[in-house]
Amino acid sequence: MPNLVRPAVLALAAALVLTGCGAEVTSGEGEGGDARARGGHYPVTVENCGQKKTYDKAPQRVVTNDVGITEIMFALGLEDRMAGYVMPDDRGDLTSVPWKDAYRKTKWLSKKTINKELVLDARADLVFAGWNYGFNEGEGFSPTELERVGVDSYLLSESCRNGQGKARGVMPPLEALYTDLRNLGEIFDVEDRAETLVAGFQKQVAEAQAKALKGADRPRVFLYDAGQDKPLTSGLYAGPHDIITKAGGDHVMKDLRDSWATVGWETVVARDPEVIVINDYGDTTAEEKRRFLKSYPPLAGVSAVKNDRIVVLDYAELVESPRNPAAIARLAAELRRFAS
């Protein structure tokens, strides 16, 4: 669990919220600003995916989509502000995670796709989701559609579109996590909790980096999510990029300016990863993915396959979530083990 930080550190970190990490926060003006001067918290304005949004009060009935987003709320202690969550049942064992009590107390609304009808039935006042993390114009479910029925939304920062078609990613993955924690801290008036989490995560990452492989010892690492004809993988802006690089690896798809995207196997072969990380989720098990990688003829000459250097991480560790820092430490240990 994150360590508590001293008040001086909290004060400094809170000041940084106003200027750093893309999480611009401003006080309300006029009557709301006067209320703040008298000690009130609201209204507050945060920047989310390039759009400034003002909240006159904390949302009371939040619906979240998927495991990482749900656990961001739980990590901030906000389960009492949730109407429930939507999540497939392939996201691993939720009874042994730090937020198991929050899962037990919070309603699992659906194991299928989130949609407008579900949100309205839950009487939600805010949906916390993301592009391809629930929001999808093709399915008729988007922040714009929710606004039309009077429901607010907050976008996962990892999913922010960058203006290049539907490509996603506007900041480094861990910065996206810290941005969302700080923004939500402001929205729900739990800034101290947010800053404590961020400080603890930064300390955990720094400790992992201090032990990580460096320089020429850094192995080339490829993230395999799914797909046989073409692999789905992580680019520069998805969680695995920071997890791999801060764990002491060289992310072979770091030039892919997107979050999650499909590439060709020929690209993977040309970059000859020395380690492959499997994203464990979905109908295909991690062991089935491993068997495919080891039996697929085009990959026979790839170093990671030849030397059986394959690591399995859980989906919730690899998407933006409070599990990212621990995943860095775990992968760093695996990479050191391979190098020994």
From TrEMBL:
CDD domains: TroA_a. Residues 61-340 form the Fe/B12 periplasmic-binding domain. Keywords: Signal. InterPro entries: ABC_Transporter_SBP (IPR050902), ABC_transptr_periplasmic_BD (IPR002491). Residues 1-23 form the signal peptide. It comes from the Bacteria. Pfam families: Peripla_BP_2 (PF01497). Transmembrane segments: none annotated. Belongs to the bacterial solute-binding protein 8 family. This is Iron transporter.
